[in-house]
Design goal:
Strand content: under 5%
Shape: elongated
Distance between the termini: 45 Å
Oligomer: single chain
Helix content: 55-70%
Strand order of the largest sheet: 1-2
Radius of gyration: 24 Å
Order of helices and strands: HHHHEEHHHHHHHHHHHHHHHHHHHHH
């Protein structure tokens, strides 16, 4: 699945400056682990300081979306205190990834069964109303309360449960932050400005009370990582970089703000360090380093925005050679999230390099990939080759194949029992891309008016879509394409307006800046 507008800024001034934390229980972190991940307070009923320390480590990692490591920490807490209820709650929580619209209910329910069986049996073992409230959230989230609701309905009920908890425990940072996260999770990875701003206000309030809380900084960043609201997250990004330097995701998350603000030097530095730490964490689990993946993709984009083309090319070639030597195949037929698949990620990086450099590297353009028909990489390859082609036959052939693959994907998505909101957003993206390919076909055929019309339609559709954080969701941004086509045809004012619109959508973007500068006196 795909990870995957204006509100007045009055809430910055109206938020309470202080939100008291509950008293800490035992140690805040496990000193033998040695990771610097921030500081939280989460009182529990365990009488084991060692188990509490492991639990706190798990909570820090959970807040940072380092789910496998959080799971191990919660399991360690259980081994130290087998009756430690909240350690089982924490382990069940690692199987819900709200920002990514992912959930493994079977694994979570297995954790609950390991602790105490059904809901009634578990509640008998709990020692406080607060623990019962936390566990009740799990029963709702994973449907283990006997309800047969859809995921969307469970997510909404979970949000409403935390809204009530937030009223009952107004000074509990953890309750407040899980409520903030649930507000974003209800929208399943697709930005809803009102919900995201409400979530941000809660996270910001906790952040002001504890600037060492990784969850507060992290969720605040997720709430405002778009070009309009990103200035509100800059302080949290700077703080998160310092307070949790030993988790790859925390270092990367800072680049969500830097990228949205066009701060390319900071974004590059963040992802270099995120990749280094992530590789070290992977090594702890016996896994190899990755030359592809989310952090590397963002790093490549940042380098290209700085016009560090040679470094980006070297990075891309190293990834290609590694995967080519390994004979990597896609992990599934229906790949829509390239970050989860090495080959899909490589194709994503390949296309980004070609788009940002204008496809001038003919050798890289000719690379072949064994996609086995996997949707996302196949569509990406057809898109890049079709949009960068200068021949009528080349554009037409790639457009035809793109349309056929798009239609097959649409049918596959609509045949599912559950259609994720991010999948519908992905289909909108494909509508934009099809308009771009039609614009290029008209362009090479000399149908200038049609080329402009298709480029305008692509920009209109993309402009109406919810903003997706990170490098442009539509790989070749549509307002930029419109500006280029309008400039070619002598429509200077329309081209200027289009480039300015692109810079509003993607701050400090190099190609849009260069296009605008060429038109201004």
């Amino acid at each position: 699945m795909l990870l995957r507008a204006l509100v007045l800024l009055f809430f910055v001034q109206s938020i309470d400056p202080v939100l008291a934390q509950p008293d800490a229980h035992q140690a805040e972190q496990d000193p033998r682990i040695g990771r610097v991940l921030g500081t939280i307070s989460f009182p529990t009923s365990t009488q084991s300081p060692e188990a509490q320390a492991a639990f706190i480590e798990g909570m820090l990692l959970l807040h940072l979306f380092e789910y496998p490591y959080a799971e191990a920490a919660f399991q360690r807490a259980q081994s130290l205190d087998p009756d430690f209820a909240m350690a089982y709650w924490g382990e069940a929580m690692v199987h819900n990834h709200p920002i990514w619209d992912e959930q493994d209910g079977d694994k979570a329910r297995a954790v609950l069964a390991k602790f105490g069986g059904d809901e009634a049996a578990i509640e008998q073992r709990l020692k406080s109303d607060r623990e019962r409230d936390f566990f009740r959230s799990l029963f709702i989230l994973y449907g283990s309360d006997g309800s047969a609701k859809t995921k969307a309905a469970r997510d909404l009920a979970y949000e409403q449960h935390y809204a009530a908890m937030a009223e009952r425990y107004p000074e509990d940072h953890e309750v407040q932050l899980f409520y903030a996260l649930s507000l974003m999770g209800t929208h399943a990875g697709v930005r809803d400005t009102i919900a995201y701003m409400e979530s941000t206000a809660i996270s910001q309030r906790v952040f002001y009370a504890n600037r060492q809380h990784p969850g507060a900084a992290h969720y605040l960043i997720h709430g405002v990582d778009d070009p309009i609201h990103a200035p509100l997250g800059l302080e949290a990004a700077r703080a998160l970089y310092e307070l949790a330097p030993d988790a790859g995701h925390s270092l990367h998350m800072t680049s969500h703000i830097f990228n949205a603000l066009g701060m390319w030097g900071d974004s590059v530095k963040a992802n270099i360090n995120a990749d280094r730490v992530a590789d070290a964490m992977r090594a702890e689990r016996g896994l190899a380093e990755r030359k592809t993946g989310h952090y590397n993709f963002w790093l490549l984009y940042g380098l290209l925005q700085q016009n560090r083309v040679d470094e980006a090319r070297d990075m891309l070639r190293a990834a290609y050679e590694e995967l080519h030597a390994a004979g990597t195949e896609p992990g599934a037929r229906m790949i829509l999230d390239p970050d989860r698949d090495a080959l899909g990620s490589l194709v994503q990086m390949w296309a980004r390099f070609l788009f940002e450099t204008g496809g001038v590297d003919a050798d890289i353009m000719k690379w072949e990939f064994a996609t086995a028909g996997a949707f996302d990489p196949t569509l990406t390859i057809l898109y890049a080759r079709g949009l960068l082609s200068q021949s009528r036959d080349g554009v037409a052939a790639h457009l035809e194949d793109f349309r056929a693959t798009k239609a097959e994907l649409e049918a596959a998505i609509k045949a599912q029992e559950r259609i994720a909101p991010s999948e519908l957003e992905y289909l909108e993206r494909l509508e934009v891309i099809e308009q771009q390919l039609l614009a290029n076909l008209a362009r090479v055929e000399g149908r200038n008016a049609d080329a402009l019309d298709h480029a305008r339609e692509a920009s209109r559709i993309e402009g109406d879509m919810p903003f997706s954080f990170g490098p442009p969701f539509v790989d070749y941004p549509s307002a930029q394409l419109l500006g280029e086509i309008a400039a070619e045809q002598g429509f200077r004012e329309e081209a200027i307006a289009a480039f300015r619109e692109q810079l509003r959508r993607s701050r400090n973007r190099r190609q849009a800046k260069d296009g605008l500068a060429a038109l201004l006196p």
